[in-house]
Design a protein that fits this description.
The protein is globular. The chain is mostly helical and 130 residues long. Helices cover 47% and strands 6% of the residues. The protein has a two-stranded parallel ribbon. Helix 2 links the parallel strand 1 and strand 2.
């Protein structure tokens, strides 16, 4: 599910919009992971309106340096993958629906390359003969 909003919309408010749409498209969704910015009134709203269990992924107490947090890293790594697509590098679109379409198009390309990669050496494979 993709929802492009104005820059002035808070993440919590955009979360309500995208979850309302996502629940109608994918009614089997039962668990949602989010960071601390989504805590507060949104938790109660999701529980009553969407009937989804919201799990806030928080940093461990006393953590001062960067550490990969489970579930949150999925989003943190996906955003740079999307920005590598030239069309998504800058905001060229006039309408939010066009931006949503290009994000979906970029994700389809990413996923098809992962499901059916081109033949040859993979970036993680050594060039030396074993």
């Amino acid at each position: 599910m993709v929802l492009v909003t104005e820059g002035s919309v808070q993440d919590r408010d955009g979360g309500r919009r995208v979850l309302a749409r996502a629940k109608t498209v994918m009614p089997s969704m039962v668990v949602l992971w989010a960071d601390g910015g989504y805590a507060g009134k949104l938790v109660a709203w999701i529980d009553t309106h969407c009937r989804i269990a919201l799990d806030i992924v928080r940093k461990p107490k006393g953590q001062r340096v960067f550490a990969v947090l489970p579930h949150r890293w999925v989003i943190e790594r996906t955003l740079p993958w999307l920005v590598r697509c030239r069309r998504l590098d800058h905001d060229y679109e006039r309408l939010p629906a066009h931006a949503e379409a290009f994000i979906k198009w970029a994700m389809i390309g990413l996923m098809t390359r992962r499901l059916a990669p081109t033949p040859g050496r993979r970036p993680w494979q050594s060039t030396r003969a074993s």
